Structures are given as structure tokens and as C-alpha cells.
């Protein structure tokens, strides 16, 4: 049964054209993820000014600080099954039996070259602090270019950009974030021990974006699919200080390749090579 009215949660307080008893329609969920929902966009702008991190990856409601206390009373608490999302955003999708959708995304992967040998030369606490500096500068680069941190995996940072959080130019934002990250890592003062030898990859394409499990199990809000796997391979192929940008990403963003090196990479799991252009930050030595 359909009804008109005011929708709660990530749909804001404005009247939405049609809201069913089962929650937002699939089209409304897609609009939320692709950036075609002006209500969610306005809500993210409001919530990002409330203290403090960490936050819901989608609507930006805070999970800590005074802002979190106030919003929790309005039902915006941290989801027990998915700590990276608020209960409102999760329930909005689950109301339709949806955990996510396939949408265009841009991924930024960056990992530390030679981390095994670095770990051997450092005490465990020193290596943890070294990675902490990497996580911190990568987080700033990704967030400042309107992306979200997908996850930290060992010595690797994954940034996710899509319309719902980064706007229609999410590929340009992802490239800018990848280059900013590489520049920050290459600075002599990136850590007390010097620069961070990070290799970075940027790619764009369709991916499943949403929760990765059903039921009450702990789940993550992430991206899955060939686009994700390809970006990981690009980062693995990048030398310290390099940003490998796939040609599809460069073309989508209008990123000029004039005067830049081009490579054709054989990527495991793909039948065709991946064409990339190479941007370079300051050289970071391992």
C-alpha cells in the first residue's frame, strides 16, 4: 500500500513523492547511492558539521561526541550489525529487502611498498606507528576529496567514491585523492622516519555497493566486483610514489595524459591487459 508523507532517516523530513509501507522504493535507494537524492545530499552537509568521528559512511551522522548523543535519540544510532553505518540507513535498504545495488564507482587503492622488510627493521610498536601515519594521511586525502574510507587492510588503504557521497564527478575526485595521497606519502616529513613508499591505483567502473552480509552478522558497507579487484592489481603494480590511473578513469575524468608514461599491464584474472597512465609524486625510498 502506497502513501504520501514524510520519510524518516536518510530520506529527510521533506515530502517524498511515494513512500510504501515497506519503506523507500528501489528507485529511491538507487538515487541515494548514485547522488540523485537532493535530500540525502543536504543531510550529509548538515551532519558532517556535527561532532564527531567516526560517522555513518552514507549519511555522515556522528557516532561519537555530543552530536551523536543528540542524534541517537532520533534513531540514528550506530548499527550493531554494521558499525560503519547508522541504523536508519541500514533499515531504509532492508525495508525493501535490499543490501545494496550495482552502481558506477571509483576506487583508490594504496599500499606500502616493501612493508615486509620495513617491518623487519622496526619494532612492532614502531611499525604500528608508521602505519598509523599512513592511515592518517590517506584518510585526510580521501575524505578531503569527498570519498569515504572503505577499509584498512594491513598496509593497504582503500578509498571509495560514488555519486551518493562524491557527486557526479566521482572519478575526478578519486584521481585527485589518489594523487594527493601519493604526494603526502612522499613528503620527507610524512613520518618521523621519513617518507612512506606507497604505490597507488585508481580505476572506475560498475560495482556492487552495499552491505556484505545478511541477518544479524557483522557486515561492512563496501564495494565488490571486478572494478575493485582491478584497482587492487593496479596498486600492486605501482612503484613507490607512482599513481597508476586506468585509461577508462582518466577518460571519464577528463584527466590529460599528455606527456605522461603509458603502460599496458597484464592483470591476473583478466583476459585483456589494462591500459594505464602514470602520475608520479616525489620518490619515496623504502
Automatic annotation (TrEMBL):
Membership in a protein family: Belongs to the adenylyl cyclase class-3 family.
Cross-referenced Pfam families: Guanylate_cyc
InterPro entries: A/G_cyclase, Adenylyl/Guanylyl_Cyclase_3/4, Nucleotide_cyclase
Record-given protein name: Adenylate/guanylate cyclase domain-containing protein
PROSITE patterns attached to this UniProt entry: GUANYLATE_CYCLASE_2
Classification via CDD domains: CHD
Molecular function terms, GO-annotated: adenylate cyclase activity
Gene Ontology BP annotations: cyclic nucleotide biosynthetic process; intracellular signal transduction
Organism: Nocardioides gansuensis
SUPFAM superfamilies: Nucleotide cyclase
Domain annotation Guanylate cyclase: ranges: 106-235
